[in-house]
Amino acid sequence: MKQLLRRFVQLLLPARCSACQRTGPDAICEQCSRELELVIPRYCMKCGRRRSTEYSSPDCAECHGLDIGVARSRSGYIYNELGRTLLADFKFNGNLAVGQELAERVLARIPTRAPRLFDEPGLVLDAILPVPLHPRRRRERRFNQSELLSRMLADHMRLPMRTDLLVRSRETETQVGLTQAQRRSNVSGAFDVSPRWQRRLTGQRFIVVDDLMTTGSTLAACARALRRRGADAVYGLTLFSTNPLVHPADRLAEDDFHNVPPPLI
């Protein structure tokens, strides 16, 4: 039914590709979609970033010997120039069709069962949690992109999604120009568990969903807040992650659009 409704709307209002503006049936045309670089199947089993080798590995140079906050993380796409354009359109212009298409392409490639997704036999998860926005920022954008992604993942994995469990306890400053250590400090203590859930998390395991992982500081801060309230383990899943072969200075530039104000529409 959803597919029929979507096609009906497309007949009335033909879509344009978010990246190249060609008219067509989808929000991302076939030519541009070929430029999207999937992380799967060559990924680091710990932090989920793309590997330069032809095989997956238990960890990588990015995360070896480090506490990354989450038990394990996975990402859909490498954050290249096309990814930057598409994610900005989804996030700041409210182009939900772009977000939906990006998520659908990733979900078609990932397992529906947690043990296979995170390479951890016997893993049982309790819920999927979107990274929360501060109320002011949510009012500006009118939606939380992580919630849309979480809802689609929850349907795919047949798990509940909770939007009232993880909350943002304070508004954070811009991350632009900050070092990795400064970013970690900036989001430290920015998340907490809502009072109604604080005594109910013992032994539970969650997936925290976000749109983009650069340094991993946001996922780590969310995971620590949950574990502090009794969660047994927290896993991460993001739509995009930065390429580990990119120089750290370039990553700061890649993150600039996170703090661009929403367009006046």
Judging from the principal axes of the Cα atoms, what is the shape? globular
Q: Can you give the helix content as a percent range?
A: 25-40%
Largest sheet: 4 strands, parallel
| Total count of strands | 8
Assembly annotation? single chain
CATH topology (level 3) name: Rossmann fold
For the record, give the distance between the C-alpha atoms at the N and C termini, rounded to a whole number. 30 Å
Tell me the domain tally: 1
Classify the beta-strand content into a percent band.
Answer: 5-15%
CATH top level label: Alpha Beta
The number of helical segments is: 10
Characterization of the model:
The structure is a single chain. Helices cover 34% and strands 14% of the residues. A 4-stranded parallel beta sheet has the order 3-8-7-4. Strands 1-2 form a two-stranded antiparallel sheet. Strands 5-6 form a two-stranded antiparallel ribbon. It has a single domain (36-259), classed as 3-Layer(aba) Sandwich (Rossmann fold). The model is unreliable at 247-265 (pLDDT under 50). With 265 residues, the protein is of the alpha/beta class.
